[in-house]
Amino acid sequence: MKKAVKNQGKIVHAYRLGDASETELRLLREGLIRIREDKTYELFSLEAVSGSGEIARKGDYFKLSADGRPYPNAKDFFEANHRFLDGDRYEQYPKPLEVWCAEDGLCPEIRFLQEHKGLVLDPSGGEKYFSAPLWGTVLSAAADAVIVFYSITRNDDGTIADADFNFVSREEFDRTYSRL
């Protein structure tokens, strides 16, 4: 696997779900964010192609991808990896992360995702080459997308116990990450 890091000093715009920001209200009107009966939120990111959106809770954050679609960040993760500047502006703390692309070939981490996290790699899938249950729905991404590992937990013997990951479109990855 390779490593990448979010671009140094990257300033992002982010919004907390439930704060009724102008951006949240606009995306609610446009149907890109929906409030479900159980008061959770459904966000329709680029990867939410199965007809349902990514599930988030009040207090979680969301950012906008280059195409203007929302994607969630869990509150604890977001606050641990961003510094508030002002308004809706935050600085991301860059830290090296493991990343994987289809052309890298299978590795133990990808096999773990396949065996334990529901990752499917479908060479005939076109825009749905990657799919996995993430954020309360099944997300999909094209073959040129990147799997970004936010964390990989290993047992004492080095075997993988858990992994937190997501798909990032190639365009978004190239715009916001640098390979190490």
Ordered list of secondary-structure elements with their pairings:
Blueprint: E1 2-6, E2 11-16, H1 22-30, E3 33-35, E4 41-43, E5 54-56, E6 61-64, E7 70-73, H2 75-81, E8 82-86, E9 89-92, E10 97-101, H3 108-116, E11 120-121, E12 130-134, E13 137-141, E14 146-154, E15 160-168, H4 170-176, E16 177-179
Antiparallel strand pairs: 1-10, 1-16, 2-6, 2-9, 3-4, 4-5, 6-7, 8-9, 10-14, 11-12, 12-13, 14-15
Explained architecture:
This protein has about 180 residues and is an alpha+beta fold. The chain has 2 domains: about 10-90, no CATH class; about 95-180, no CATH class. Helices cover about 20% and strands about 40% of the residues. It is built from 4 helices and 16 strands. It has helices spanning about 20-30, 75-80, 110-115, 170-175; strands at about 1-5, 10-15, 35, 40-45, 55, 60-65, 70-75, 80-85, 90, 95-100, 120, 130-135, 135-140, 145-155, 160-170, 175-180. Strand 6 and strand 7 (about 70-75) form a beta hairpin. The termini are close together.
Query: How many beta-strand segments?
Result: 16
- Multimer state: single chain
Q: Mind summarizing the main beta sheet?
A: 5 strands, antiparallel
Instruction: Bin the strand percentage.
Output: 35-45%
Number of helices: 4
Order of helical and strand elements: EEHEEEEEHEEEHEEEEEHE
Instruction: Give helix % range.
Output: 10-25%
Mean pLDDT across all amino acids: 93
Shape field = globular
In terms of structural class, how would the helical and strand content be classed? alpha+beta
Radius of gyration based on Cα positions: 16 Å
Report how far apart the termini are. Answer: 11 Å
Number of domains: 2
> Low-confidence stretches at least 5 residues in length (pLDDT < 50)?
none
Strand order, largest beta sheet: 15-14-10-1-16
